[in-house]
């Protein structure tokens, strides 16, 4: 029993020592957290009311106090307001000594001092700052009153929602206020916009009478576009005694688009019951009077068995009912292994040059030079975009049409009997004349260009010339197009990224427009397409340039197609 008692006492003593030692260790840490600086405000400001510009209101005050501030308290008033510590000397900013601020409440005085141009309601803030403390802000407000004739507006720039041609946007309210005016306020607005004082009757000129000229008047402004596109204008507000106020106006009238779907996932292939071409007739837009632009889109999708693994020649043609000829609207080279689904609407072409043929019942042909039964599903649709045409009447005639297949193009580097020289007669009422060319090379013929490994005509860079009356007039450079940047880039394992000469796999073949400096109205000229000199050595097959060239004329009066003869 004695031994147990001793153990118990010994245990109690040890525990007591541990507690005492712990207490002593804790007492060694004498570090205390630094007090947080704080800014306190007591009171707020009511509106200072109306005050003549270049003058001062009576002051108002609030109480401020600092706690634990380690830097002076900076007190700043925003534009058109002033601050003071003694209600005598006012300025934009004052500083309160940190010791004084920490000692007791201090009175801060503020007054409204509108500048010469601060007419009408004005807001502001009183800002109190000191290092480490949360910044405090108090709201200020007043209204400047002009001492001279002046006109103010609630906004100097108005913008409007997109609005279709011949329609009116929702009105935007503009507050117009005169000060010290003794005559009418006159308002004038530019075309494509109009205004009203009652929100019902709109006009391009208005007047706010003398009796209400010095009151706030709501003017309703709206956008009434006459043509598509972005529009800007001005609203001028004037008075005989005051400076005029100009309000800028802006709006956009999106084009009205008429869409026509023609071929819809039409399967083109070779074998399996499919054909490389398909021809159908479609009813397209009838009235071209208000059509500014015609766009064509070609969308490729892969059939269930997958797309053709090769990059193949393809195009879309329209039939001229007068001649029975097919005219190339657009050409493309298909992607390796895939479609063009990375493009929202597929390949895009401006085919406005052919709008005289793309109306009413129209025969179209699509073709892809596929050599297996995979092929593509081809969809073609047209946008007829309303607007003001550059000329209401167009006519087009082919000059060269060697474009049915890649290998039906002009043989390059060998003797041939393809006719590249023509005589072209332009109608007497032509007001604009240009050439439209699509050209792409095919084949790996040799000799390759020195040091490049580029055979012709798919790879060899060349410059061809259009000769008019024997003189080089336009050049066509068949050069690199940065194929690696093509957005249709899902073409592995095809050789899609290497630059060809003037085209890329999975891309539209460029349409080249050559505009004559004059209309050539009533003139006849000699045309020649001159390929850059090169000789095929015959050791690696043939080279071809699939070529289509048209002459397009435009006029403000009905116009016949140009005449092209051999």
Describe this entry's structure for a reader.
There is one protein chain. Strands 2-9-8-4-6 form a 5-stranded mixed β-sheet. A 5-stranded mixed β-sheet has the order 11-18-17-13-15, with no helix packed on it. It is mainly β and 566 residues long. Mean pLDDT is 93; it is low at 1-28. It has 2 helices and 40 strands.
Instruction: Return the CATH architecture of the largest domain.
Output: Sandwich
Radius of gyration: 41 Å
Q: Based on DSSP secondary structure assignment, what is the total number of beta strands? A: 40
- Put simply, the count of helices is 2
Largest sheet: 5 strands, mixed
Strand residues, percent: over 45%
Oligomer: single chain
Class from secondary-structure proportions: mainly beta
Total separate domains: 4
Low-confidence stretches: 1-28
If you consult CATH, what is the topology of the largest domain? Jelly Rolls
Largest sheet, spatial ordering of strands: 2-9-8-4-6
CATH class of the largest domain: Mainly Beta
The coarse silhouette is elongated
C-alpha termini separation: 137 Å
Q: Averaging pLDDT over every residue, what do you get? A: 93
Helix content: under 10%
């Amino acid at each position: 029993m004695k031994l147990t008692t001793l153990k118990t006492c010994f245990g109690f003593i040890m525990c007591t020592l541990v507690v005492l030692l712990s207490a002593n260790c804790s007492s060694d840490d004498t570090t205390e957290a630094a007090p947080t600086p704080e800014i306190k405000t007591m009171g707020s400001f009511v509106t200072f009311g109306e005050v003549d510009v270049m003058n001062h209101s009576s002051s108002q005050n609030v109480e401020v106090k600092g706690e634990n501030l380690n830097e002076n308290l900076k007190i700043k008033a925003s534009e058109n307001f002033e601050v003071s510590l003694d209600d005598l000397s006012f300025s934009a900013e004052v500083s309160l000594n940190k010791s004084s601020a920490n000692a007791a409440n201090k009175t801060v005085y503020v007054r409204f001092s509108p500048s010469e141009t601060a007419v009408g309601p004005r807001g502001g803030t009183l800002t109190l700052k000191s290092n480490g403390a949360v910044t405090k802000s108090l709201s200020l407000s007043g209204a400047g009153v002009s001492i001279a004739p002046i006109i103010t507006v609630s906004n100097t720039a108005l913008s409007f929602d997109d609005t279709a041609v011949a329609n009116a946007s929702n009105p935007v309210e503009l507050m117009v206020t005169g000060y010290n005016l003794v005559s009418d306020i006159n308002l004038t607005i530019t075309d494509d916009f109009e205004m009203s004082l009652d929100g019902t009757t709109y006009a391009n000129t208005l007047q706010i009478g003398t009796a209400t000229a010095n009151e706030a008047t709501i003017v309703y402004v709206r956008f009434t576009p006459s043509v598509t596109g972005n529009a800007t204008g001005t609203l001028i507000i004037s008075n005989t005694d005051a400076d005029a106020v100009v309000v800028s106006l802006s709006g956009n009238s999106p084009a009205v688009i008429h869409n026509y779907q023609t071929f819809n996932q039409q399967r083109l292939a070779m074998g399996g019951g499919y054909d490389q071409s398909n021809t159908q007739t479609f009813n397209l837009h009838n009235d071209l009077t208000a059509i500014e632009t015609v766009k064509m889109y070609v969308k490729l999708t892969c059939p269930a068995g997958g797309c053709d693994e090769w990059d193949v020649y393809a195009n879309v043609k329209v039939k001229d009912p007068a001649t029975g000829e097919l005219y190339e609207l657009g050409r493309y080279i298909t992607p390796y292994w895939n479609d063009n689904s990375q493009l929202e609407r597929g390949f895009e072409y401006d085919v406005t040059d052919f709008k005289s043929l793309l109306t009413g019942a129209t025969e179209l042909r699509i073709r892809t030079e596929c050599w297996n039964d995979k092929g593509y599903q081809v969809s073609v649709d047209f946008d007829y975009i309303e607007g003001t045409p550059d000329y209401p009447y167009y006519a087009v005639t082919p000059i060269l049409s060697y474009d049915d297949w890649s290998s039906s193009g002009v043989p390059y580097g060998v003797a041939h009997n393809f006719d590249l020289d023509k005589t072209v007669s332009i109608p007497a009422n032509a007001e604009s004349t240009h050439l439209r060319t699509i050209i792409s090379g095919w084949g790996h013929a040799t000799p390759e260009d020195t040091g490049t490994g580029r055979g012709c005509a798919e790879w060899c860079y060349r410059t061809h010339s259009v000769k008019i009356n024997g003189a080089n007039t336009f050049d066509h450079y068949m050069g690199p197009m940065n194929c690696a940047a093509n957005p249709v880039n899902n073409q592995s394992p095809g050789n899609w990224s290497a630059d060809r000469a003037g085209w890329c796999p999975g891309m539209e073949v460029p349409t080249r427009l050559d505009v004559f400096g004059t209309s050539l109205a009533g003139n006849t000229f000699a045309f020649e397409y001159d390929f850059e000199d090169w000789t095929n050595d015959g050791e690696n097959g043939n080279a071809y340039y699939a070529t289509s060239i048209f002459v397009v004329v435009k006029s403000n009066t009905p116009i016949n197609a140009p005449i092209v003869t051999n």
